[in-house]
Amino acid sequence: MNNTFFKIVSFFLIFVVISCDKKQVFDEYYAFDGTWKKNKKAAFTFEQKDTTSVYNLYLNVRNNNEYPYNNLFLIVSLNQPNGKVLVDTLEYQMANPDGSLLGTGFSDVKESKLWYKENYSFEKAGKYTVEVEHAVRQTGKVQGVKDLTGITDLGFRIEKRK
Asked: Per CATH, is 24-160 categorized as 2.60.40?
């Protein structure tokens, strides 16, 4: 009886792990070497063949306790196969009012899954490139932060909607 129960539980856990990420179409990370330089873009290139389905696009940010700001400002460019470029300026809250980091994780590194585009359909089949640069500024300063500390990785993820 114990052996049967163990087999059922094991099968269920394997099924859950395998089926959890069926929506994933693309998931890639760009690692930063301690700081995210202002002039350094994180780029993600992928081939998209399906122009009829609907997708959700996310940016996954991993940051640690060295991240000194409450918000994160990003400029995201979606370069399409036809030469068209869609540019968005995005703002995300990264910390609570008390300064504690938002996101998931047990250590000092937190991961935040942030919306980029919801219910998005790709116009053309072909190669796409997403480029992301930070646009963080200190309060009262015109010039952007040159070396953004605390961001360890930036990911780009595409999930198919059901």
From this structure: no
* pTM of structure: 0.82
**Cα–Cα distance, 112 to 92 (Å, whole number):** 10
Instruction: Please give the average pLDDT of every successive group of 10 residues along the chain, which has 162 residues.
Output: 45 43 88 90 97 97 92 97 96 89 86 96 97 89 87 97 86
DSSP 19-50: HTTTTEEEEEEEE-SSEEETTPPEEEEEEE--
Instruction: Yes or no: say if 136 and 150 are a contact pair by the CB < 8 Å rule.
Output: no
Alpha-carbon span 27 to 57, nearest angstrom: 10
Name which of 130, 66, 131, 53 is nearest 95 in CA terms.
66
